Amino acid sequence: MVATKRNEESISDKRESVIRDKLARFARVPAEASFDLEPCSSPLGLTEEAAQSAFKKHGSNIFVTERAPKAIALLYAAVAHPFNFILTALAIVSIATGDKATFVVMMVMVLASTGLRFWQESKSFSQAAKLLNSVTHRVRLLRANKEIELDRKEIVPGDVLVLTSGDVFPGDSLTVTQASLTGELMPVEKKPRLVLASPEFQFDILDNDNICLAGTSVATGSGHAMVISTGSKTYMASIAKDLAKSRPLNAMQLGVRKVSYILLTFMLVMAPIVFIIQGAISKDWKGAIVFSIAVAVGITPEMLPMIVSSNLALSAVRVARKKVIVKRFDAIQNLGAVSVLCSDKTGTLTVDHVRVSASITGFGDQSNFPLRLAYLNSALQTGTRSLIDCAIVDLVQEEGFSKFSTEDSSGEDDVTLEEWDKVAEVPFDSTRRLLSVLVSRSRAAPDEKGLLITKGAVEEVLDHCTRVYDYSSSSSSPPAKLVEFNTQANTKLLTSDDQRQILETATRLNEDGLRLVAVAYKSAVAMSYMTVTRDDETDLVFVGFLGFLDPLKPDAADAIDRLSKLGVQVRILTGDSPAVAAKVARDLGILPSTSISLEHLAIQMEPQVDETNLMITGSQLAALSDNQAAFNDAIEKCLVFAKVSPRQKLQVVKGLRKSGRAVAFLGDGVNDALAIHEADVGISVDSGTAIAKEAADVILLEKNLEVIAHGILQGRITFMNTIKYIKMATSSNFGNVFSVLVASAWLPYQPMRPLQLLFQNLLYDFSQASIPWDNVDPEYLVAPKAWNAWSIARFMIFMGPTSSVFDICTFILNWFRYGIQDGNSPDVSRAQTNWFIESAMTQLFIIHFLRTDKIPFFQSRASFPVVATTTFVGGIAMAVPYVPVLNHALGMGTPVREFYGFLAAIVVAYALLVHIAKTIYRRTFKEWL
Ligand SMILES: Nc1ncnc2c1ncn2[C@@H]1O[C@H](COP(=O)(O)OP(=O)(O)OP(=O)(O)O)[C@@H](O)[C@H]1O
Ligand SMILES: [Mg+2]
Fold first, then answer.
1. Is residue 346 lining ligand 1, measured as CB closer than 6 Å?
2. Which of 153, 447, 696, 812 has a Cα-to-Cα distance from 667 of 20 to 30 A?
3. What is the complex's ipTM, to 2 decimals?
4. Which of 531, 549, 567 finishes a domain?
5. Which residues of the chain have pLDDT under 50?
């Protein structure tokens, strides 16, 4: 075992070093020369033929995380379970005592539970892999000098990627153009190598300048990179095992594991006790061994792994019908526990169709000057195409600039992109909230060619402006020809009064629900190969705003209402302005409709949070960061967080999680990825950026909050059905052990033959296998449930002995009514059969009694699969004494007819007792399952 493990390790070490060596070879040569290392590749991309032959050679580029596990791995996981080892060991002990039949029954149990688990899992994993396939992963790349989009799967080594912020590297790649790229959570700058590395060059896979690993993403910047390795040849694939290990177990997984350990310990204690008592009283030590083995098997919850995995798989398939794709099955469990849903605003709460609905000056007058400048900025930038940029470009391409023209500006030119050359840009990021493009105008005077056009969030743009465009001045305003207008003319100093007026205009528009982008420019030197940085975004001239209409989804308010009925609080975390966020929140019913004073929020930014203040801005939050208590309090109380940075979105999620709640985060942008990653359940949408999708556990193929409510409901059903099984299994085991102890101490014969005990256990296993398909009473689904070990323990201790009462009644019946008091009596087999039937029937009824706190069959009915299996198994239990071969094999007697009358009475009395116990239990502990 150890040897094979070492072997395995050295194989994976070898694989890793092959992968590393290849990357090192590329990392040390200058970017230009790197194309010589990959056959057929060139800076213009592969030709279609070269790509096809590379695809034949390297195959589909599927991420390890998306591959269905191999059947052999699933089989191994199902077989190599501690329960199987225990059952097999016990089976071997019993065959050593010459008991072949016991051995056979036990091995049937092992095979049944392992087989069912394997079958369920392989079926659902292959379904899951299919579902994951429906999530799109588009990658932009060059092929034969043409920029195209392809699915990630079709990428091959040698491909030249065209990257921008938010993109995920489809394979291990080498940066080849000069734009800077940054890596993952802790951004690292990557740049192409210009000269050959020195001979002492040491390649470090996790710390280098020019290699970007598959699965990492571009935080900011844009550029080109050449793919070196794909699929199973990537570094990510070589460490896949460690990746899987590093994922911590969730509360439910830990709980299930704990329950298993507790039951195993219980078994290790009880089996020897039963053995000693049985042996001492009967003096048949060999019989006592076999009997105590059967008791030990009875305590082992061998169906638990199968129930847990079936439950999850079943739910994953059910939510997929609503177009919700779960990347890892255990995310379903977390979904059920969620009590706070944090959401980004655009596209999830609002319809995903942002339209430009205003182009105005800072003082509220219509003008198409802001739109014309913004169009150049949006059309020429090469970063992530945000909804805002798409809206601007679409409007201009469809309607030109006429929509916002004023009468005296009828002669304005259409901005034709051919007359403009983009020289450089500073891409948008959600912390700076600006996007600048440096352009060169072919027709302008030589010293007037360069223009830096910046657009971004209002306050941020205003902060970088020192002048404002003066529309009221006498000369043509706004300028007729952008390509040649004089950038110095018609501007005046930006006074604090102007600033106040501009902010007031912005707040007014925001309050109407308009999302705003401010536009500014300055004249700048623009020569080829120049670069611009954020430091150039100073001394700008303020031009005006573009207003965007981003209406709420018609069903969003209903969905939020539904979520709140499920005990899930919805909070908004947005980078947008407080006024827009407040409007959206009010329209959705997240904030009360009475307006919250916005002055101190938007303008004064005083760090204060009180009861009525349910909203906070990023800068207020930042101001609180020195005061941990106030900071936590704000996170606890605020429902709307406006103008928050990506890191603050993360902080809020972290803070909420620390207070013990399970948090889901729904978002689609680069700025949401950190928070998505941190949340208990990260949710993204299929149209979201690659980085957000990569970080998410759940992907919505259709943007819709309603389906999240459905997912949460499914998660709770999964949770309840698992808990149901655990509570049933533990309490009935506990009851049985208790009965066996009483019987061993009292009866001079075994209360049931070991083989019968095992057979009954097998029947019980089968009837419980249908529990994942059971209904759950709606009352259990209205609030998030957390794993509670104490609740399971007290249920077991309280409910377990109820069945023992009737087991003991059966012993009494056997002893006094039928006079079976002697171990050598020929009637012993009848006594054993009586208890077999009574115990089997009570165990089957308990499934119906415990699954609900209502009156079973009348007020709450089990699902068809549960009714069918329990009825079927009950029929078998009753029939066994009369089936010729079976009754002989199991050593059954035939109960007298009168016994069935007693049996019916026992079942009725049992139902009554359970009902009374249930009522007391519920009154005392205020819960049932
Ligand atoms: N492409 C862009 N160009 C210029 N400014 C932008 C751009 N995208 C966003 N902004 C500005 O930055 C602000 C914050 O936007 P960002 O997309 O970072 O926030 P968000 O949290 O994703 O918002 P939402 O909740 O609406 O999705 C916007 O309100 C807008 O003023
Ligand atoms: Mg967003």
1. yes
2. 153
3. 0.96
4. 549
5. 1-6, 178-185, 410-411, 596, 599-611
Residue 129: closest CA among 70, 59, 171, 216? 70
How many angstroms is it from 575 CA to the middle of ligand 1? 6
Q: Say if residue 876 is in the same domain as residue 907.
A: yes
Give the integer Cα–Cα distance in Å for 416 and 434: 24
Q: 445 and 523 share a domain? A: yes
Look at residue 611 in the predicted model and tell me its pLDDT: 39
Q: Which atom of ligand 1 is nearest to the CA of 515?
A: 29
Each residue's pLDDT tens digit, 382-412: 877 788 999 999 998 888 887 777 655 544 5
Reported residue count of the chain is: 929
- By the CB criterion, residues less than 5 angstroms from ion ligand 2 are 344, 346, 669
Which residue reads 């489809």 in tokens? 170
12 found inside a domain? no
Ramachandran region, residue 567 (left: φ > 0; alpha: ψ -120 to 50; beta: rest): left
pLDDT for position 11 = 64
Pairing of strands 540-549, 211-212: unpaired
Question: Nearest ligand to the C-alpha of residue 343?
Answer: 1
What is the model's pLDDT at position 178? 47
Residue nearest to atom 14 of ligand 1 (CA): 575
Rounded to whole angstroms, the Cα distance separating 236 from 171 reads 9
* Residue 885 pLDDT: 83
**516 and 585 assigned to the same domain:** no
Say how far apart CA 638 and CA 616 lie, in whole Å: 7
Cα gap 519→455, rounded to integer Å = 4
**What strands lie across the sheet with 222-229, from one edge to the other?**
146-151, 138-143, 160-164, 222-229, 172-175, 211-212
**Set 99, 159, 167, 344: catalytic member:** 344
Identify the nearest ligand to the CA of 641 by its number: 1
- Check whether residue 526 and residue 599 sit in a common domain: no
What is the predicted pLDDT for the residue at 413?
59
Is residue 672 domain-shared with residue 646, that is, in the same domain? yes
Which CA distances in Å does 244 have to 19, 65, 238, 677, 893? Answer: 20, 9, 12, 15, 53
Say whether both 769 and 639 belong to one domain.
Answer: no
Are 389 and 506 in the same domain? yes
Residue 576 beta carbon below 6 angstroms from any ligand 1 atom: yes
Q: 3-state DSSP helix/strand/coil percent for the chain, to nearest 5?
A: 55, 15, 30
Output the CA 311–ligand 1 centroid distance in Å. 40
746 and 879 share one domain: yes
Is the CB of 574 inside a 6 Å radius of any atom of ligand 1?
A: yes
Give the pLDDT score at 321.
87
Angle at 847 between CA 844 and CA 851, to 5 degrees: 165
d(CA 146, CA 158): 15
Sorted by sequence, the CB contacts under 8 Å of residue 772 that are 6+ apart come out as: 307, 310, 311, 314, 718, 721
The pLDDT of residue 407 is 57
Q: What is the CATH number of the domain that holds 569?
A: 3.40.50.1000
